[in-house]
Amino acid sequence: MPKSAPIIKATNLTKLYDTLKAVDGINFQIEPGTCYGFLGPNGAGKTTVMRMIYCVTPLSSGILEVNGNNVMKRMSAVKRGIGVVTQDDSLDYDLNVINNLLVYARYYDLTKEQAVRRADELIEFFQLGEKRQAHVRTLSGGMKRRLQIARALINKPSILILDEPSTGLDPQARHHVWAKCHELLEQGVTLLLTTHYMDEAEQLCDKIAVMDQGRIITEASPWDLIKSEVSPYVVEVRSDEQTRQKILTAVADQIDFHEALSDRLLLYTADAIPLHAQIQDMNIPVKTLLSRRASLEDVFLKLTGRELID
User: Fold this and answer.
1) Which pTM does this prediction carry?
2) What are the residues whose beta carbons fall under 8 Å from the beta carbon of 157, sequence distance 6 or more?
3) How far apart are the first and last CA of the chain?
4) Considering Cα of 160, then 163, then 168, then 171, what sign does the dihedral take?
5) d(CA 141, CA 143)
6) How far apart are CA 241 and CA 264, in angstroms?
7) How far is CA 20 from CA 148, 207, 305, in A?
8) pLDDT tens-digit readout, 121-166
């Protein structure tokens, strides 16, 4: 079967603010029905890219096509096919749950019957039936987030943009949001995601673009990024600087590479068990010694020399 055309395609996409290049000539394409994530520290350009896709921020140069439509030439057509969930809580606190959906449906010229039917479907999908008549202010954080996502889906968009979708949510609420995202992917909705949560990116994304200073510095699936850029395991040591240096000297021939941060030493290795044991056998005081699987944050740290939460 022929490969489907990208649902989003960017060519030399650039955004300038005076002399600042917020987005610096990036190229990417997103396949329909997949989840594509932008990863990077604050100021990397992730949200600016999102805003250009949903036609809030104009391009400075380059070409950006969404659903086959040039965002600078067919803005209305682009907007009709996109749902947007921003970082901020934009729900209407003067309305209850059902009316948040029905009022929003007016922006898409849905008839009253279509709006009610679609709102009912979304309330059931996001398990908000018991809160149908409840005012927004009485909802938990997780329920508010689910309502925001439901509202963004009122027009049955083919693309859903999620900017930090689970920030501020407790673990249970985050997993509930993730489960619904997986269901949307199964329905063929394309997800575009920014996040600071590594487990969120690994759970949801088929492909990730790591951004820094307005550029995409690498792009691949989460697992392929980890395999290609870092060793499988990390041993973390928290101690004073002198102790960390003593450990590094002693284990230098046992590691692939290391990262020295302000408060800890990260030792990358193919096998954490003997390395962990060797450090323990040194009998020197450390605040923390732990072994873990390498993560996307390790990838970012290696590529940029900065922690993801900068």
Assistant:
1) 0.85
2) 80, 81, 82, 83, 189
3) 44
4) positive
5) 5
6) 8
7) 32, 28, 21
8) 999 999 999 999 999 999 998 899 999 999 999 999 999 999 988 8
